[in-house]
Amino acid sequence: MSELLDVFIGESRENLESASQELVEIQTSGPSSDKVDKIFRDLHTIKGSSDLFDIKPLTRLAHAAEDLLDSVRAKEVDYNDEIGDLLLEALDQISMWFDELENGTQNLAEWQPISTDLSAQLRAFIDPSQADASTTEQTPAAQADSSTNEIADSVATALDAFDDNADIALLSKSASSDLYVMEYTPDEGCFFRGEDPVNVALALPGLHAFEINAPAMAADADVYQCVLKITALGEASEDTVVTHMAYYEGQYTLHKLTQQALKYRCKDKILDSVAQLNDEALNDALKTARETGDTNMLQSTAGLLLASQTHPMPTKAVLSFLSSDNDLTFLDDDKQLGGPDDSADDSASGADEPSKEGLLPHEKELLTQQLALISSEGYSAEFMFPSISMLVGNVLKQTFSDEAELISAINAALEDVQNDIPEIQDVVETTNAINESEMQTAEDEASQPAKAERQAVKMLKVDQSKIDYLMDIVGELTVAKNSLPYLAKQAEEEGGSKKLSKQIKAHFSIVNRLTESLQSAVLQIRMVPVSHVFQRYPRLVRDLSRKLDKKIELCMQGEDTEFDKNLIESLSEPLIHLLRNSIDHGIESPEDRIEAGKPETGRIDLIATPLDDSVIIEIRDDGKGIDPHKIKLLAFQKGVITESQLESIDDNEALQLIFAAGFSTSEQVSDLSGRGVGMDAVKTMVSQAGGSIEMQSEVGVGSTFKLLLPQTMSVNRVMMFEVNDQMFGVSMDAVVETVKVPTQDIQRIRNENVLVIRDKLIPLCNLRDALGFEPDGGKEEHSILVVSTPQGEFGLIIDKFHEGIDVIQKPLEGVLAGYSHFSGTALLGDGRVLLIINVQEVLSTCL
Amino acid sequence: MPITYKKKVAVLTGHCEIEEAETLFSWLTEDTSRQLNLKTLTTAHTAVFQVLLCLRPKVSVQPESSELYWIVEMLQSDNNKVWCE
Amino acid sequence: MKTVMIVDDASTVRMFHKMLVSSDDRVVEEAENGVEALEKAIGTHIDLFLVDVNMPKMDGYRLCKEIRQNELLRAVPIIMISTESATQDAQRAYQCGANFYMTKPVNADSLKSVVSAVLGGS
Predict the structure, then answer these.
(1) What is the per-residue pLDDT across A261-299, written as a single tens digit (0 to 9) for each?
(2) What is the pTM of this model?
(3) How many separate domains does chain B show?
(4) B83 in a domain, yes or no?
(5) Among A497, A721, B7, B21, which is 20 to 30 Å from A75 by CA?
(6) CA of A552 vs chain C CAs: smallest distance (Å)
(7) CATH class of the region A529-626+665-710
(8) Does A169 sit within 8 Å of B53, measured CB to CB?
(9) Are A361 and A427 contacting, i.e. CB atoms less than 8 angstroms apart?
């Protein structure tokens, strides 16, 4: 246990530290969505892993902080310093608790009130109207537990508020010890968080009764404000209920009570009802039951009475209670503390050995489930009988030759159990108690210097900025080495030393090789598997598809494929948009899918494959596909294409129109997909990252998006050129040739400048124009860079050519990031910054 | 599924989403004699239930789905309390 | 000697469940996803699968189906462990061939006693 705890604490401390740092930064330089997001994720991780341990107050506090951060990042709540301070306080508190856990000095009872208080303060920011409200009643001392037979006042009030006879009614329906009364008041704005309170309440574990308080609504009321108040009565363990209500903490109050305590409360009602009925048989049977403990007669008599007439409440409930198998010793007990402690006794025998021929805890559940499986509609003997009979065989120590034998054996075993004392729920109580004692032993272990050695780790955590710095130096080295050949030449020509020149050249090739290896190695340090980014997606898909009532399965492949850490985030954004579009608009609702003869569950495939220096990422869905006709029409309506184009373009070209600027097919801006992000934005993102995107689709079958992205910021060979006295670069891959032509050779055809080179018609693009410089009139000849693109060859009119060099291309940052004309920058040996143009983008503005 | 509005009766079918609540509310408040056909309704978002429970319109056809027993009871009786059977 | 295979993509969870389930007369195998689980299971004698739902490469539901399709593995009981507590998730697990369904975070003692019961001992 302590090893796991160590790992948890170690990891969580890191999360805490990172969160604290971000918070401090926010306090100095203001909140940014990145920072808020980071803190949110840190707390989310802490919350999730702390859940493995029995440290609920910590988990709840982390949850409250997480929820608050969620609201901040969703812009529902404005960040302010107060929030920052409170969050820091929460983080500090969690840190102190970690200290205690490490030393073994943790005291959960002490943690409770602190956690409740801080959590409430945090949540108050989310919805100030909830500031003083709802929590679960935390301190066990205030609860009815098996040692007192009284229910707390608050519980009693809540019960009575529900109904005068709610107590006896609940008692008559309950079979186990953990009962609850819940008051659930959803926030007014909860619908906007995607919450659906009524259905949440309907699904409460062990629900027995509920009330929905619905005030009258004026004609001008806001339908999307939730004004309902729900009260629910049921039986289930606190944990089950709290887990069920996990997303709704702060909106409900959970009152716990035990069946035992409820019995005591109803004692008078029961006795009074029986007296009123004045039925001789019943009175006798009850007397026998109280004297001998044998309730059989009582059960049948009460049952008979119940069935023979209609009774008013509370008599009906009383009879119902008496007709079931219940321990009635409370009738004769005078509210003694620590009285016949049924649950304690039961659980003792239940947990340790099977009493007479009884079953171990959970054996009953297991058997019941196997019975359910065999009796279900979809049961397939071939596939299921082997494991079911194996399981049941292990439990009952028998073998079975067919289902009939198995079924009767299970039934026989279960019947025996009905008469046994321990209920599973009682055992659950003990197991909770046992959990706590486990924590005790964990404390003992942890108090030893268990932390003495963190095992020798083979991983290093390194500050990213150090790696970036290393990269910069390598970059400069790469460029600096390039001057050696030139110097060698100088040595020969001007210095007259051929020998020296040869030596320099020889050394150059060594330095060159070393530098390239160094560069490669440093780039490798920054490579991370795409699973880093992919792993968020299943959750995203689940949540979104649930919100839309669709069934969608996400299948991912190739998550090991590696990617430069810096570039990986640039990859994530377009992917999320594409995924959201698939879920929102691609995959149909389950009903539509079935109608279309497709399986109910839609499928999205996300596949990453390395290809040379790049990675291909494919997102494929089997949804309704994109209709080229619709696209064409919409494009025409939006003025993206002309009428003649509407006629002339084929289906494939039509599909590609979704990438056109200003185009969005979704008529409703679905707030699930964010701004209903258009494909053009996705395309831009991909281009910025130096990649490309393709799409194929078939109506009714599905759509596939293919992204091709460079894996690293690898060394690029770039051709430098000058425009307006500024240096630019273009990827050497794209360059076909360079020509200098006299002005008169340039022809104008249909409003475009073109050049004919060896019978090829090359459209020209004047980079001065494209880059926004003043035109340079009256030149006699022009320098033209001929580039090749998937759409064919084009010529770029520039001022002057320069040489090709090796550079490490960095993506655009800061102010420049919005300029789609450039795909990156590179640092020159002399400190100048080279802007590397994005050929596709530049051409598209030009032509 | 979207609600079908006839002259005096609105027919709710399948699952009614949150968006339906607004139209339903206006439709019912315009003329309080209008009724609801819940025959094939299976589930609904709280917002829709809220409209029903706050306005308490007459139900011309009760839902067939046993899952909705609770709202049937609530709308028929005076209080909104239900015991699950 | 009974062998339990724990299939879950989170190492902390595997570690935790392994701790709960280990004993002198048991061997615990681990796998990160359905594919690895099948690879390791074929050729070994497994007495029980503890399967998480959400895993990359092959999720718990598919793994269940595969196990039930496989003649050699068919008779092995499967306990599905998932974060989802909705009835339809449990139903789906059962439709795919699970024998039992538990929700995360599992109650430590519940898991221990369920596993003991399924393996047929104490």
Answers:
(1) 888 888 888 888 888 888 888 888 888 888 887 888 888
(2) 0.35
(3) 1
(4) no
(5) B21
(6) 13
(7) alpha beta
(8) no
(9) yes
